[in-house]
Amino acid sequence: MPFLTEEFGNASSRHEYGSRARIAINAARERIAALVSVDPVQVIFTSGGTEANNMFFGGMAAYLRPSQVVISGIEHPCVSVPASKLVRQGWSLDNLNVTEDGEIRLTEISVDRFHLNGLVSVMLANNETGVIQPVREIARVVRKSGGWMHSDAVQALGKIKVDFEELGVHALSISAHKINGPKGIGALIIDKKLPIEPFINGGGHERGYRSGTESVASIVGFGVAAEEAQRNLDRYQSQVSPIRDKIESDLALIGATIFGKNVERLPNTTCFSIPDIHGETLVMELNKGGFAVASGAACSSHNAKASATLSAMNVSESLSLGAVRVSLGPHNSLDEASRFGIAVSQITDDLKNMAAVAISA
Fold first, then answer.
1. What is the pLDDT of residues 82-113, one digit of tens each?
2. Which of 34, 254, 299, 306 is labelled catalytic?
């Protein structure tokens, strides 16, 4: 709050007000760096995960000659769209397939699959199903091929350990809003040897990679959120997993399909579908009961079409259109989980009865 109400200095200014802003930004950068185990100099602030992902593709494509770009079939649009646009610049595009549980097939990974100076981007955890991807194994092969490995870790940050060096990637995208920080601030974490060109040119802010006056309040908030996430990481899973498990056990009783249930997932994410129940209808009815959930990805839940992620998992269109995503946090409780299960069951019965009456009429 002080940086929204009192501390109005521009961090690039040499006077006292600017110096205080710069000190605050440096402290936040250190906190964020600690969360992902890098040096502060490797943290480049952006407006969020979307910009960070675009910065990787745009910055690398501006430096390298066109080669090959490889992504998985379950990437967020802020990866799949900029990757596909590189085709217009002479790049070839290749997609990695996933299993029916939404995990990238390791049989898809080989040195021969990737090109020298090619770009590879695989998310650490899927934003709809929560399925954790084998990024470390893929990065190891990409490095052997002479390629450059990026991972969108926005969904995973604060839920599981995210260690830049252990993952072996060259770049990593993160965002504050997934760890209870402000919306509109994120970062691209880069290898010190990454040959990336500036994404936004101007006054040379963020080591010249992303010029523009810094949003001090947002950055400070990101730093505090990162510190909290690091402090609570060890007990996050033990707090949240039982709540998710309770929800899923109740959903199973009413015939719901849980996507990705057979592989490793984030502890806070459940993506399910109930046959013959449209996801958006269920979301709206649950909202009336005080439950805030999303039909598919939260950022595209207004689009009434089948999920690209679920399509890549060979989920039928009818089941995909019924998909609902539940995202939990330590503030949720087992009591809320019980009430949620009861609400879904009641709404499902009501909707099916209404449908039966309409057919008979």
1. 999 999 999 999 999 999 999 999 999 999 99
2. 299
